[in-house]
Amino acid sequence: MTTDNGGEFHLRWISFCNKQEQEVAAAGDFAAAVGGL
């Protein structure tokens, strides 16, 4: 694997992790809203 491919993979991995964190946060907000009903 070249450094270019490694860098691209790293950026994709960071993007994937950020997306997962946003989805988890959204799910937490949804659960809190449902729990507040």
The total of helices stands at 1
The count of β-strands is 0
N-to-C terminal Cα separation, in Å?
52 Å
- What structural class results from the helix and strand content? mainly alpha
Quote the beta fraction: under 5%
* Sequence of secondary-structure elements: H
Summary of the model, kept short:
The chain has 37 residues and is mainly alpha-helical. The chain has one helix and no strands.
Task: Present the secondary structure layout.
Blueprint: H1 3-35
Report on this model:
- Helix content is 89%, strand content 0%.
- The longest helix has 33 residues, at 3-35.
- The mean pLDDT is 88.
- The termini are far apart.
- It is an all-alpha fold and 37 residues long.
